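Hey, resending since the last one bounced:
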Amino acid sequence: MLLLGVRSASEILNLSVIASMTELNITNIRMQMGSLSTQIDNMDMQMGHMGMEIGNLNTTQGNIVEIMRDMQQNGLVQNRAKVGWFGVPEPPSFTVGLKMHLDELKKKLVEDGVSMALITGHPGSGKTTLAKSFVKIRK
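The structure tokens again:
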């Protein structure tokens, strides 16, 4: 208990207002602390989820590396390392679906007497493989 020497009613009113404001400030601080505690809990949960996602990514990366290694060992994937600045990868040991295009290229260059051909297509559609297959057959 606090005993104060009060001189007038206006001092009592002022002290009452100050006490009310102090109590209001204390209530606001407690609410903010509760809100901060909730935010910290949410951040902690998010960090836990991020840790799980990173773990999943590491597992997925490990699985991909393992699958690629198995495919290389079984001859399903070739090493695509390039030599020098403009190296061309080795052609695959077999091709699928290029026979029709190879026959058309042979007809143009060999039978029709055309000296040059332009091979166009989307990236990865087999343009280089087609040209290399043609050269391999001609040798």
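The chain has a mean pLDDT of 76.

Sorry for the duplicate.
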